[in-house]
Description:
The protein is α/β, with parallel strands linked by helices.
Amino acid sequence: MKDRKSVKILLIGIGGYGINYLKELTEKDLGAVVIEGVCEVMPEVYEQFPVLKEKNIPVFQTPEEFYKKHMADLAVVSTPIHLHYSQIKTCLSKGSNVLCEKPVCTSVKGAKELIELERETGHFVAVGYQLNYSRDVLQMKKDILSGLFGRPVQMKALHAMKRGSAYYKRNSWAGKIMVNDCGVHDSPFNNACAHQFQVMTFLLGSKMDEAAMLSKVTGELYRANPGIENYDTASVKGETADGVPIYYYTTHNLERKSFGPVSEYRFELGTIYYGKDFGDGPVNEYVAVMNNGTSISYGRISKGERMQKLYDAIESTRDRNHPVCTISCAIPHLEAVEELSMLPIVPVSEGMIKWFGDEDDRYCCIKNAEEVLEQCYLNQLMPKESGAGWSK
Ligand SMILES: NC(=O)c1ccc[n+]([C@@H]2O[C@H](COP(=O)([O-])OP(=O)(O)OC[C@H]3O[C@@H](n4cnc5c(N)ncnc54)[C@H](O)[C@@H]3O)[C@@H](O)[C@H]2O)c1
């Protein structure tokens, strides 16, 4: 059996999404993996996470404090997005590889500086867009790169998730445009529903660890919930540098829990669908239907672990290579976030809004959000073109 080198891990931010990493590492036997420390600033952290005491895991306020007496082979960053850049810099310069939650930082300029620092330090930064690590997606990308589907023609996706007051109140940056002079641009497009857009750019990348660059990004941005700063509904139209149009539709202003994901990736020789109803209800797997009538089901491929990104980052640390989702793979999405941030945000007229829920979690939905976004998705339209009536 292969000798498994021990890997020391630093977890930065465990109180939000980062709990998933803590659980994976403490509840499963990953073999020769040690949590060397945790950085977390929330009060009563030991009470909140008894496993820290049980397993003698020391807690620090900052990575700098951790690195005074400790080292880590891999640092996992799951903190608010405006902290990623400086925390990644610290970890790389102190000799750690990094797995950072998406988005990798808040600007394309910052992302390029981090690539430079990867080169200088010889350590990697992997970004936590989990679809990029999913084995079915990777096989699909290999098939795309092998030419199985011919040239890409058009990519589109829709993914919406209901989010209410509890989501926006959970921290000080949710729904914000700026935090401490830093453009966080938090929105469904940049955060909760980022994945389905990013994966389209990933799939069109010219190498496994690259995404397709975008030459154009435009769209329509709407704010239904007047309590937040940024937009909570977006229709996005992009184009890759090779001229492939990309359409994406997302919102938090839904009445039901979620809508989608659905996607349709059209190529010269066939179309890949996710969430398509072929007659027996939606198929929540990627299925390619070729022009010659044959089909390929990617559902046959086991996706890997739920937190496969963590396993891949650990293996890459051992093997001294780089996980598939590089900073380059994160840049087109980041670029789209930046481009969209220059567009106006249109407030949705009160007549189109419905509030529901209770004091603990109150939701703001756009009455016809589902119909409009579905029509836009089916016909590659923007809400105005579809007669949404959101901005009267
Ligand atoms: N991949 C996914 O599906 C997914 C899902 C949700 C969130 N995320 C990403 O995870 C990251 C965190 O999001 P969240 O929703 O958990 O945010 P959050 O603000 O709710 O939680 C962040 C955690 O970091 C801690 N923290 C804040 N400042 C810190 C500091 N200086 N040092 C150490 N810890 C600090 C907070 O106390 C909190 O526990 C974001 O990048 C987000 O986009 C990814």
